[in-house]
Fold these 3 entries.
Entry 1:
Amino acid sequence: MRQSSSFTAGLLSLASLASLAQAELGKIQWKGLCDPTNATGPMICGTLDVPLDYTDSTSNKTLTLDIGKWPATKKATAEPVFVNFGGPGVNSFEGLGSYGKEFQTGVGNTIPFSCYSNDSSRELASLQAPKDGTASNTARGEIWAQSTNYAQACYAQNGENGSLIGTTFAARDTLQVLDALRGKDAKLNYWGISYGTTVGAVMAAMFPERMGYLALDELIYYVQTRNATVLGSSEVYSTVKSYGLSASLTSSSNEVESGIRCSDKAASASMSDVLPYSNVRASLSRIASDGANTDMRCAQWNKKMYAKERYTGDFDVKTPHPVLVLSNRYDPSTPLAAAKNLTATFEGSVLLEQNGYGHTTLSVPSLCTAKVVRAYFSNGTLPAEGTICEIDVPLFTNLTYADVWPKSFQAGL
């Protein structure tokens, strides 16, 4: 897939998309069982060819998506749920394999995107600049210089292929898989997690009539201000610190993530354009100033790697079924405020708040949350406004879903 998240594909059958590349409805070639890393059981794998460039009506080049399906544990009575584990850059085959007993189906693969020819070059580059923009008086200047080299290296390795991995292409890919599985009139049931919420929100805005049940877990950058992702990080750090334990709150920065984020963003022109955002970021959170790395990389991104299509519209959307929005109360990456903002724009949507810590509601088991999600995907039932779900395990334990969920509930998954 263009970015390593599950169930991504694209739709080309709407009249409003007549200027985009047209492709015949593809067929998934199922290949049998596969065994991804960390799998808790067998998956069925296959492939699907989709257009490489949706904006080029003259091209017949295709991209082969790898598709993974986790079979239902009992006779299926509902439509499949597409799961996007986010990132950008998360390996969804591994994510689906790990969570397969909780999620029913998923998909994933990626256009190779790497900014270095080997691991040695990557490691050397990582040592050349401070990770924190407030590490010293010269830290941001050093980061800017290193980011110049990074952006140049990414273009040297990927060229114009870097323009093919943006969010809107991932959204179109998702609907291509849906068409192949269920037909071009099918509705999409989708659980987007972290960056998967970005893909989901863009799909809902571009193709609202194709949406079925849409759950968005921890809202991220496409529908936020530039520094919105750090709004809750200091509160999370202070609360976790009160437990007397150390926790690592690190970013998932890698080349694939930078490729997608920077392709989607409108680039700045100079360091002086970026510094105001970096200063605000540092003032909002004591631990989030390392976000300057991404800002400075994207500011110098080669224009030939800008996403060929970017969604620039609003998110005042009415979908056939109201959207379920989920958020932890304490999330270092995607604050509760972002979830509240999106809930206000998607007509009829409801926010479920989980009184937990970590990134996404999956970070800590909650039977209450699981029941809400199950009811929503079963028949569209939404929780009452203001519902707060408690978690079932304390912080920093090794307890899992299997340890805390009743056997009767697990059997129904």
Entry 2:
Amino acid sequence: MASTLAWSSAASSSAPSSRPSPRRAPSLLVVAQGKVKKYRQVILTDDIAEVGKKGDTLKVRAGFYRNFLLPKGKATLLTPEVLKEMQLEQERIEAEKKRVKEEAQQLARVFETIGAFKVPRKAQDLVDIIKSQLNRDVDKRLVTVPEIREIGEYIAEIKLHPEVTAQICLWVRVEKVREVVWNADGGALERWMMKRVVEDQFG
């Protein structure tokens, strides 16, 4: 009897267990996300009161950009590509400014050294002379001819550029002029009168 019990015990210990194996708990993957950006670096594409002017680069709240600037087309994100394009555009603008200034300086030298025409009494006269002599159009509003009231030296100016102004000197003198006047009887009368003469720096 003892041996039988021992065998049964051994057999029962080697028999496979009918109890189900415990299930493994599902693993939970946690991914840490970075903080949501609260600000955006933008460039304004239009003037906005109390915010900035077109072309300004600003740091604005993300909600302001998302809800106002972007839908209304008032700004764009300042990406490296946009920044590079801005730099290239600024270089083009500076080159054009330099070219215009150099052209104005050359034109000023022409106006200040040419002696082919007398300086006129009013701005429109000077504009007409420049057109006929040099085939160039000049805005009358850029021309300043001083009012001549007495003898002396005057300066006529042509504003060719914010940094370039052509200056032409005028000397006003008085000379005695002989004049012939015809009377009612057909006779000629000779008289002398004093006349103001305006000369430029070329005589």
Entry 3:
Amino acid sequence: MEKKRKIELETLNALKEKKMSEVFGDKGKKEKKEPKKKAKKQNQFNEGIIIQVGECGTKSFIKKSSSGKKNLRKIFNVVVFGIFLLMAGIIWFLFVEYQSFRLYKTKNKEIVALGKKYEEEQKMKAAELKDLKNLSLDNVQNVPEDKKNLMLSIIPSGSPLLRELFVTSPFGERVHPITHERKFHHGIDLRVDIGNPVVSTAIGRVSFAGVKGGYGNVVIVDHMYGFQTAYAHLNKILVKEGEIVGKGKIIAEGGSSGHSTGPHLHYEVRYNGTPIQPKNFIDWDSKNFNIIFKNERSVPWEYFLTIMGKN
């Protein structure tokens, strides 16, 4: 019994030891394995840190690279825009210069054309001067008859009245009949009855028709080549400003308007604005064609004779 109990105790102890050994043996193994696991975990942790650090560095590098690219793009865009502005400025400058050149070229053509025209005019004047050597005031009768009549129709000639002439005050220095002052009389006064017809002495255009100070009712007619006639102290005006009148056209009625001592016509002939002796033009007609050239020397008649003498 005791042996049996002893054996059972030994068996039980053996089982205990076995169990203990198994228990402690597994723990030791675990303790041995744990450092490896810890080392592995540490390595994994370290690797994770390295990876994270690497990722951060990569991200930082990527961010820096992306920022650098953006800066490069900005710089590139600024440079391209600057080049564009420069090219636009150059193109605009060239355009302005081209327009200036075209304008200069056009003006230059006009100057050249004017120069040619001036040369032609000088040649014509030279030819006219040559003709004048052959056409003097002594042989004005050589002017063709039709040219004489034309000249008499475009330059004031003949009487401004349809009645017999009677001069009441001549052209030149005189004592004014109203103010009694010595003044130059720029026209000639012809006796009229109120209502007598007054006619234009040449073809022309009415430049004035109305009241003019002491002259009363006045008509002024502009003729060719700088000639002008004036008719004053009229009773009634029968034309309007701007109207074209022919030689012999009735333009007014004689009267005594303005500063006047009685009915009369104040008649003036002007050349380039200067009053000249109207009696010379009143006496000028086809029968006495050369009389005007001898008596009125203030007009360059040679020029008109040259024009009229050409066939």
